[in-house]
Amino acid sequence: MLQRTRFWIRRIAALLALMIIALLALRIAMTEQGPALQLWHTWLPAELSDSQMDRADWAGYLDNERRIFAEMKRNVSDKLPDSEAETYNRYAEKSPVYPGHFATDWNHSYQLLPAGKPRGAVVLLHGLTDSPYSLRHFAADYQQQGYVVVAIRLPGHGTVPAALTQTEWEDWLAATRLAVREAHRRIPAGAPLQIMGFSNGGALAMKYALDALEDPNLPAPTRLILISPMIGVSSYARYAGLAGLPSLLPAFARSAWLSILPEFNPFKYNSFPVKAARQSWLLTSALQSQLHRDRDNHLLNKLPPVLTFQSVADATVSTPAVVRGLYNLLPANGSELVLFDVNRSVRLAPLMRPAALHAADTLLPPPPRSYAATLITNATPTSNDAVALMTPAGSTVVKRIPLGTSYPPDVYSLSHVALPFPLSDSLYGRQPDVPNEFGVSFGVLTPRGERAVLMVSLDMLMRQASNPFWPWMQQRVNQTLQ
Known about the structure:
Blueprint: H1 2-32, H2 39-42, H3 50-55, H4 58-75, E1 110-112, E2 120-125, H5 136-144, E3 147-152, H6 169-185, E4 193-198, H7 200-214, E5 223-227, H8 240-243, E6 257-259, E7 272-273, H9 274-296, E8 306-311, H10 319-324, E9 336-340, H11 354-357, H12 359-362, E10 372-378, E11 385-391, E12 399-406, H13 458-462, H14 470-479
Helix pairs in contact: 6-7, 7-9
């Protein structure tokens, strides 16, 4: 009997080994058919380590950042052939999307100071593959409200996508601690300190707030503002590292990338390395464990209020995880969750997946809840006019508030990337204030043509990238400053 068991164990192990080898061979074959790696996929900038950031101040971080950008110009831009000059390539100096020629290169960390004595401070944390550009509209508004703004370029971002092949999530968290130290230093004792995080930055904001509950040496935020926060990601990200195993051999270096695309966006990477996906899962896993631990230890009772904006249709992060993995764990501390529904009045509604069309009906537990919940949706099934259906914490009464704005009739939903950008954004907006300010205005592109002609997918160009409800979001954020 024992010999027979061992025989089957050996057979199953051999079968699994053959399956792994076959999958790796398939992975190699697929990546070898893809585009070649470019300089921005291979050159690695020298970012500060997490321990170095914990010893550094804001000025030291900026000094190292300036060195990185100078080295990037010498090692990437200066080495590109003349044939790259007029293309949409963010690394070619003569390209219309070259960030170094703009009035402001939003890939860099920055501070904004109010005109008078600061009322408070806010730390802005951008998303994965993103840059400080993504929250610049909120930054300007916070400054006008009398707040010091500290917007940090997280390690591995704003330079070359290769930088994300060597960055750990602990590096991003160390940068968050550095930015909070700087913001705290800038304001009077007792002044409010907010952290606003977009996507991956939302996970970092939440993780920092939990760490501050456990470590009295960390300045504690008084409120968190989360936009499309990365509380949970696809389970595939857990095993993404396996897809990069062939890259351990130099001949198969392209296997270290989930996507290799032209870099035509001046403030966001298009290429995406395997390691970045793995780090996103590790961060959310650590966050989930700490949330449950702090709930069990009653530490969440000391957590500051959390205001979150989230689309029910989000292909990047898990919307159910925001509800179940965060909000359903929160105490009654004044938190609020705002959900943006799909546009139920568009003619495409019959073509929507039922899970998306009815997501808002199933996401939330029945009231009363420990947190306030607001659903932005159509006033009627046939109207584009939008209303806010607000249910206060601890209540079952739904307040219906007209927003005075509408869903664009050709937009069937918001997206993960749309929420922080107003329609007037020069790069992503549908009605840019300054068209082509950054070489191109993606929000006004309406490409039509045959398949397999463009180098990128139509999904990438036609994904909704700005938010018609941004002015209402701005107003709601400003209410937290009163």
